[in-house]
Every structure is written in structure tokens, then in C-alpha cells.
Specification:
By secondary structure, the chain is α/β, with parallel strands linked by helices. 41% of the residues lie in helices and 18% in strands. It has a five-stranded parallel beta sheet with strand order 5-2-1-6-7. A four-stranded mixed beta sheet has the order 4-3-10-9. The chain has a two-stranded antiparallel ribbon with strand order 8-11. The N and C termini lie far apart (42 Å).
């Protein structure tokens, strides 16, 4: 299989590593000093279980893996899978136009999972939900994609670029749960899962919309509270007020899931415990804030705000905390 990972940061590099290890042809598009280092010295990746090192490997460019810094350097023009793993600040029309030459009728597209995706209300089958079926959450994104080709995938692991060219996977929680959105991509989704599984968890799931919802409400709750307190996971775990705020945000967000009768397979308590099991982790947006990079919080909150308007719901506690944090970080 030919695979393009557009925006290979910490997560994108790990996905590339998994698929390369399974024998596929992988092109990683990344930029800056990270690109310069992996192009020259290879991608160095360490897989850990919190403090325990599981594997360390350096993958130099070869006939099966290609490192590029812009789309003009991409040698192939037909890809079976295209992962978009850019930060939400770069998930925009410029990126969408840049990837168009590499999409064809059968290219499976795996968009970001760091906000409620534009396709979240696609393919609602219950008659009672007819008025919400196929409503667009983000028209600016959706117009660039063939909706039948989307594979939904969430990313439950803690991974960072420790230094340019050096990726560290600190802890794997649920790995990469994935599923097709429409039946056209079922075979490709199954093959993708089978290719990831030898190297990382990739569970088969019944409802990918539930997976995406849980991932994004978790991200909103934990990142919002972390940005407010500037606590890493270890400190969040031991602070009762932080835990209370995280759960309150999740409770408000759960109203949205109930509006489309979405099954929630994990309780709030279980999700909090699972996330905080990665004690060495600092939430990604707090990490961005600390190094002077713009956090993605506004994009994430906008997706929930849009849905709360569609369903005529209030998320007053969450919005109040967002407005407080917004003044601090933007």
C-alpha cells in the first residue's frame, strides 16, 4: 500500500513507523528542523510505557520510506491512504488545496480527530434524527473531501517530539481505534487496522462517532483545565478541583451525544482514570502554550459551540472557563 502522512509530527511519525514496519510504502511530509534531522540522520523513535523503554529504532530513508518537506517533493501521485495529521491551526484551505493532487476516487482519507469532525452528523440512520442527518459542522473543510472515502480514527497515546528528529511515544492508552464512516471504505479500514495492530493497539469499534466524541470531549476538558491550572497529568490527578472541573465539562458535553442517541461506551470516571494513567504526560495544548506555540483550543471549542447551537443546548461552565483561558493564551 502507498501511504501519505501529511503533517508528520509526533503522532504522524508514529503512524508512519507502524505502517512502515508492516511493509508498506510510506511518505512522511514534515517541516523545519524536524525534517532536516530525519532527512539527514533518519527518524529516531522510542516506544515507552511511561518510564519503561519498550523499543528504540532509527529509520533512515530508503525505498520504502520517503521524507519530504513540501508537496512538490512527493514522488508518487496515487495513494491508497492519506492521513492529515497537521495541527488544527494548519487544517485550512491552503492544506486542503495542497493535498488535492494526491486524492483519487479510491483514496481513503483520515482527517484529524482533535475536534468534532465535519462529518460527525453524516449517515445518521434513525428516522427521528432526519433533521440533523448530513448537517455540515464545518463547510469550509467538507467541500474539499469525498465523504464516502473517510475513515474515522482516534489517537489515544502520548507522543512528543523530544528534539528535532527524535520522537518519543510515552504511553499508549487505546492506540488507534478506527472505522469507516460509509461502507465503501470498509475493506480499507480493515486492512489499515490489520497493518497497525502488530505494532500498536488498534481496536475494532462499533461506533466511530462515539469514539470521536469521547476523544474530543476528553481533549476539551483536559486541555482547558490544564491551560487554566498549568498542571501536568500528575498534578491534575492529585488536585480535586481540577478533577471536578474536568468532569463538569464532560457532563455538559454529554448532552450533545444524547441528542443523537450516541452510545457512550466509557463512563466519565473511567475516561478520567484512563487519561491520567499517563502520569508523565503534559497536555498537548499546555505544552504548546509553554513553548510559545498557539494552542488549538479555539478550533476545538468552536466545534462544540457549533453543535450546542444546532441542538439548542447550553455549556455555560465550559464557555465561562474557555473565556477565562482565552484571555490568558491568545
Amino acid at each position: 500500500m502507498n501511504i501519505l502522512i501529511y503533517g508528520a509530527g509526533a503522532i504522524g511519525c508514529h503512524i508512519g513507523y507502524c505502517l512502515y514496519q508492516s511493509g508498506h510504502n510510506v511518505t512522511l511530509l514534515t517541516r523545519g528542523k524536524h525534517y532536516e534531522n530525519i532527512k539527514k540522520n533518519g527518524m529516531h523513535i522510542k516506544i515507552c510505557d511511561n518510564e519503561k523503554l519498550i523499543e528504540s529504532k532509527t529509520i533512515k530513508e530508503n525505498s520504502k520510506i520517503n521524507y519530504v518537506s513540501n508537496s512538490s517533493q512527493i514522488q508518487k501521485n496515487i495513494f491508497d491512504y492519506l492521513f492529515i495529521t497537521v495541527k488544527l491551526n494548519d487544517y485550512n484551505e491552503k492544506t486542503f488545496l495542497d493535498i488535492q493532487p494526491f486524492l483519487n476516487e479510491n483514496t481513503a482519507i483520515i482527517p484529524p480527530c482533535t475536534k468534532i469532525p465535519f462529518w460527525w452528523l453524516y449517515n445518521l440512520e434513525e428516522k427521528s434524527l432526519k433533521k440533523f442527518n448530513n448537517l455540515e459542522i464545518d463547510v469550509q473543510s467538507s467541500k474539499f473531501f469525498k465523504k464516502e472515502n473517510i475513515i474515522g480514527m482516534t489517537m489515544w497515546l502520548s507522543s512528543v517530539i523530544e528534539s528535532p528528529g527524535n520522537v518519543v511515544v510515552k504511553h499508549v492508552q487505546r492506540g488507534y481505534p478506527l472505522k469507516e464512516v460509509f461502507s465503501k471504505m470498509k475493506n480499507k479500514a480493515d486492512k489499515l487496522r490489520e497493518s497497525i495492530q502488530p505494532h500498536c493497539l488498534s481496536p475494532e469499534v462499533d461506533n466511530i462517532k462515539s469514539e470521536l466524541y469521547i476523544k474530543t470531549i476528553n481533549s476539551l476538558a483536559f486541555n482547558l483545565v490544564a491551560l487554566d491550572t498549568e498542571f501536568n497529568n500528575s498534578k491534575l490527578k492529585n488536585d480535586a478541583n481540577s478533577i471536578k472541573a474536568i468532569k463538569k465539562i464532560m457532563e455538559e458535553g454529554e448532552q450533545i451525544a444524547k441528542k443523537i442517541n450516541l452510545p457512550i461506551f466509557q463512563s466519565i470516571n473511567d475516561r478520567v482514570s484512563q487519561t491520567l494513567s499517563s502520569t508523565a504526560h503534559t497536555m498537548s495544548m499546555l505544552n504548546d502554550f509553554k513553548i510559545g506555540r498557539r494552542p488549538e483550543l479555539d478550533h476545538l471549542w468552536k466545534s462544540f459551540k457549533t453543535l450546542s447551537k444546532i441542538f439548542d443546548l447550553d455549556m455555560d461552565f465550559t464557555e465561562s472557563l474557555y473565556q477565562k483561558v482565552k484571555k490568558k493564551i491568545y
